[in-house]
Amino acid sequence: MTSPVTVVGGAGRTGRLIVADLLAQGVEVRVVSRRAGRAADLRSRGVATFDADVRDGRGLDAALAGSAGVVYLVEPGTANSGPDRPETTLYQGVRNVLAACSPQLERFVLVSSIYVTRPDHYFNEWGRLLDWRLRGEDAVRASGFPYTVVRPSWLTDEPAGRAGVRLERGDRGDGKISRSDVAQACVHALSSPAAVGLTFEMYTDPGVAREPWEALFAGLAKEPAPGG
Ligand SMILES: NC(=O)c1ccc[n+]([C@@H]2O[C@H](COP(=O)([O-])OP(=O)(O)OC[C@H]3O[C@@H](n4cnc5c(N)ncnc54)[C@H](OP(=O)(O)O)[C@@H]3O)[C@@H](O)[C@H]2O)c1
Question: In this model, does residue 228 exceed pLDDT 50?
Answer without folding.
Answer: no
